[in-house]
């Protein structure tokens, strides 16, 4: 299969698993189930869970074993988007071309939907660990990767510094911190946890980590660029919001030309980390093109 076909197949696998795992039974708290499912199924590309599946397969693991963890990381990512869109954060009305969660369900339910997705992600992973006790060591290590990348030493830490940096002059070290933690951390965790679940060797994990670090940062800088010169219809969200909110971005700090150069440099470094695996690494190489060479 070509890359686009493989991507669609993996997206379908993730979507079917998410539909299976996410609660939907009639109950007094049905409103929260609807709000959680609304944002999860609002058109996400499933990049992080797909990278986790690919890393697991790359290291010789089984798709079925990694699915609960892949769905969990997508739930965590979605919770972060729900909260990021709130008036107290980025105050966005649209996400992926649809009204944001708080515009549909109200701020209170949106906050709880994000909380619900975060908590349910850990329920899902712990349930899987309890069901497969013989594989609990690798599974617990994978869960730790996801937990740390999602928390104050990862995504949340990056979001805090991002908020603190609004309307301020910052240095390049702070800018890199924001991007590496707010966005890059979950990309790295997705790939590392997938490989860990498969019981990969340390050297392979090292190479995959290097790939993830470079591609994750390249992905975020590309997002910064698209917020300036991207097509709103293709992006499914308003462009120019970073500048409007005086966010710390690469183009604002370094200019567009340097930002393009930085993306290309990160792209090449990401490929260099895995190209010696040859055809085995083809999906990751194609994914790098897909992530950091998106249409401007």
Automatic annotation (TrEMBL):
InterPro entries: Isoprenoid_synthase_dom_sf, Polyprenyl_synt, Polyprenyl_synt_CS, Prenyl_diphosphate_synthase
GO-annotated cellular components: cytoplasm
Cofactor(s) it depends on: Mg(2+)
Record GO biological process: terpenoid biosynthetic process
Keywords, ordered alphabetically: Isoprene biosynthesis, Magnesium, Metal-binding, Transferase
GO molecular function: (2E,6E)-farnesyl diphosphate synthase activity; metal ion binding
Top-rank EC class of the record's enzyme: transferase
Catalyzed chemical reaction(s): isopentenyl diphosphate + (2E)-geranyl diphosphate = (2E,6E)-farnesyl diphosphate + diphosphate
EC number: 2.5.1.10
Family, as annotated: Belongs to the FPP/GGPP synthase family.
Full protein name: Farnesyl diphosphate synthase
Organism encoding this protein: Geosporobacter subterraneus DSM 17957
